Amino acid sequence: MTPPEASVSAVPPEAGQGEGRFTIIGLAGWYFAVPLERSAGSMEAVTLTRAPMAPEAVLGLTHLQGRILTVLDLRHLLGLGRGGPPRRFFLVNDEDEQVGLVVDSVEDIVLVSPLNLDSIQVELPPGVRANASGFFRWRGHPVVNLSVERLLK
């Protein structure tokens, strides 16, 4: 992993929401950022136990360090269509529990000052826009900040 300072385009602090640390994840050709305080790590995908009558976004349950982990299909939550079999779970803290989100990759941890979402020059799918709270550029790519609160409600 490269140091955060080496991998982020400079963004003036007055341009956005204030400086913060974010974990960058990759999914379906997009890059998303989750606040570091909500990030709880990642793991290779494991076999899941189906949860009868659960919402479509719930792929299943697994056991992690003595706790039940609910795994959600992030593509479905963001309206990005169906993907292949899960390869990686990104763990996020949701109040009193951790939730796994299926992602393609976990890329980097960065220190940035996100810009307001209104200034992004990329058309966002409706599900992405509904769960976004800002964006920044990383290695020449736009990275959309995800609002974990909105995403998991």
TrEMBL record:
It comes from the Bacteria. Residues 19-153 form the CheW-like domain. Pfam families: CheW. SUPFAM superfamilies: CheW-like (SSF50341). InterPro entries: CheW, CheW-like_dom_sf, CheW-lke_dom. SMART domains: CheW. This is Chemotaxis protein CheW. It comes from Thiohalorhabdus methylotrophus.
